[in-house]
Amino acid sequence: MTIHEAHQKLLFQLYHIYDSNEAEAIANLVMENLVGWKKIDRIINKYVPLSIPQLELFEKYLQELSTHKPVQYILQEAWFCNLKFYVDENVLIPRPETEELVEWIAEEVRSKKLKVRMKEQGTSDKKQDPPFTIHHSPLTILDIGTGSGCIPVALKKKLDNVNIYSCDISEKALEVAKRNALSNNAGINFLHLDFLNNEQRNELPSCNIIVSNPPYIPANDKSSIPNNVINFEPHIALFVNDDDPLIFYNVIADFALEKLLSNGIVYAELHEDLFSNVKKLFLQKGFQGVTIKKDLLGKHRMLKATMLP
Predict the structure, then answer these.
(1) 231 to each of 71, 220, 225, 235, 239, how far by Cα in Å?
(2) Which domain holds residue 297?
(3) Is residue 119 pLDDT above 50, yes or no?
(4) N or C: which end of the chain has fewer CB within 10 A?
(5) Is residue 79 part of a domain?
(6) Cα–Cα distance between 295 and 293 in angstroms, integer?
C-alpha cells in the first residue's frame, strides 16, 4: 500500500464519521504521524510504499478511529498554543477556546505590565490613601484543575518572571501535566488536591491571577455530548451535578476573595449557556468588574473578574 492509497483509505472511513473538513484534518494528522512527512512531502512521495511496521500501525489507527476515539488520544499528542502536548484518556483534549483564554491572559499581562502592589509598612497618615511600593516581583498565577497542563505550560512559555502553581484532583492527570511541563521546559509547581475541599485548598498560595477551566457541563446534558467526547474524555473534568452547576465558580470566587493579592484577577472558561449566571455570582460576591468575552465562534466562553483594593 502506498502513502497515497493509505490516505485515500483513511479518508473513505473518516467521511462516514466526520464532516469533510474534519476528516481531512484528522487524516493529515494520522499520515504525518505515520510517515513523518508534512503534506507537501507526502504528495511528492505519494507512490512510496508503507513499510510493514507502518502498515501494522496504520491498521491499528483505522480500527481505533472506527470507534470514534479522538485522534489525539490515538496519536497521544495534541497541539496547543504552538506547543506539543502528550494526552491520554486521563485528561481533556486541549481546545481552541482554551487557547483564546490563555492568549487573553498573556496579552493583558504583557500590555499592562501587571505588578505586585505591596502596602508600605510604618505609615500613620490616615488622611491620604495608603502609599504602595511597586515591585517588579514575579507574578504568581494559580491554575485550578490543570488536566494536561496546557494552560500553565503555555502561560509559562509566553510570560517572563511568573511563578505558576497548578492543582488537580486526579493523580494521573498530574502525571500527564508534569510530563508536558518537562517536555516543554516549563517550571510549574504542581499540587495534588481536591479544590472543593476547604482544608486542602488552604494549602494553595496567595496569587495575582487565578485561571481555571473547571468542570461546568450539567450531568443532564450528557445525551447531547458527541460520542468521541462522552465515551473517551474524563467525566470528572467535564460534568457537574445538575443541582449545583456553578459549584466550581462559587468556590473559586470565595477562594479568590481570600487569596488574591491586591488588584488580583480571576480568569475562567465558561459554559456558553450559563455565562450570565456566573457573571451574576461574581458580582454578588463583591467583585468590582466582571467581563464576559466571546470566543471566535461568537459564544460567551470566558470570564474576567477583577477585585480592586
Answers:
(1) 13, 16, 9, 9, 13
(2) 96-306
(3) no
(4) C
(5) no
(6) 7
